[in-house]
Amino acid sequence: MSNRSHRNAGHIGMNLLRKRGLMHSSHRDALPASTEATSHIVAVADCLDTLRRIPSRSIQLVICDPPYNINVAAWDDLAHYVDWAGQWLSEVERVLLPSGNFVLFGGLQYQGEAGSGDLLSLMSWMRQHSRMLLANLIIWNYPNGMGAQRFFANRHEEIAWFARTPKYFFDLDAVRTKLDARTLERYKRDKRLVADNLDKGINPTNVWRIPRLNGNSKERVGHPTQKPAALIERIVRALSFPGSTVLDFFAGSGVTARVAIETGRHSIASDADPMFSTYLARQRNQISETAPAYMLIEERDWSRHPAFQQTVWLLCGRRQRGFRCRRHLHRRVAVVIAAVVIGVGRGDDRALGEAPDQRAEIVHHHEHRGHEHQRQDGREDQAADDGHGHR
Fold first, then answer.
1. Ordered mean pLDDT values, 10 residues apiece, the chain (391 residues)
2. Domains of the chain: which residue ranges?
3. Which CATH superfamily is domain 30-300 in?
4. 300 CB burial (10 A radius; 0-12, 13-18, 19+)
5. Nearest CA among 316, 310, 306, 307 for reference residue 362
6. Is this prediction's pTM over 0.90?
7. Residue 98 phi/psi, 5° resolution?
């Protein structure tokens, strides 16, 4: 059987973009590098309370490690799991940018451990109720774990990666696996492979072999289901960009906030556990002194965080295709911006009197759309999007 990638529109489109030295449109919308301190909201709060405060289309990456509902503890047994999860899944779709990504950790139920749903149930719910796209199912494979007598010992967890739209952001170069010199030399003999890409490393695939944290690991902060920083870092580097915002409303051990600080992203981290602040303080103690500057926002007023100013940026054109604000655009949307400033602190889309999708149209109606490079690579860019899911 022939290689499906040879006739895959998305694969062909991305290759054309790379050969012409162009980039996918999701990368053109990435913020330029900044030396300013990143901002990090920290809250002990219910997940839905946190989500409902966040403006629509303001988050680049949501990392979600919810209770698995497989009875590992008292808090991990929910009578109406899917109904409860459906509420925050809907909110996730609302807060994500068009280039945004959603990463969902989960477990599968074995031997009737729980009856109201698991990761498969949540993915089924999304197929029926969400327009987000399943980009990858990642297998986190770890060598260490418990033994078993009546079944094969489990050595993996599933991570479902969903994209908000086909224009999702993905930075493969940031997470390529480096090849040793001997292997690199052997691979370069294969003329079908691109030498420049091999120098950068290879695609790590969707099977990630990263050890779990042992009980005596130096990373441990006391949370019972803490994820390794290396695992979260790969997700953050691949699916977000410096200066964007990462959200984790089941923040648990605080590792997502720590990784965001270390990689120059903003973050919003909350958890209902009163111990969350303690766990995060222990995570911060492990941050290197050479890490980028950052500031914590622990008060109730979140308006200083960039995610709460995102709506204003969109309206004045700063995030639209790299444009700078124009005076005529300022005049036309001055009244609208004033309305946003009033309502944005509470995440209120109704401050505009428009739905989120309609609000975006206000900008599109007034902005100049004549970028030469967009005309040149638009066809290949669209081919790359259309081919997604047929890999």
1. 55 61 63 80 97 97 89 68 94 98 87 72 95 97 88 92 97 95 93 87 95 93 95 98 97 97 98 96 95 94 91 46 42 46 47 40 39 49 55 42
2. 30-300, 307-386
3. Vaccinia Virus protein VP39 (3.40.50.150)
4. exposed
5. 316
6. no
7. -55, -30
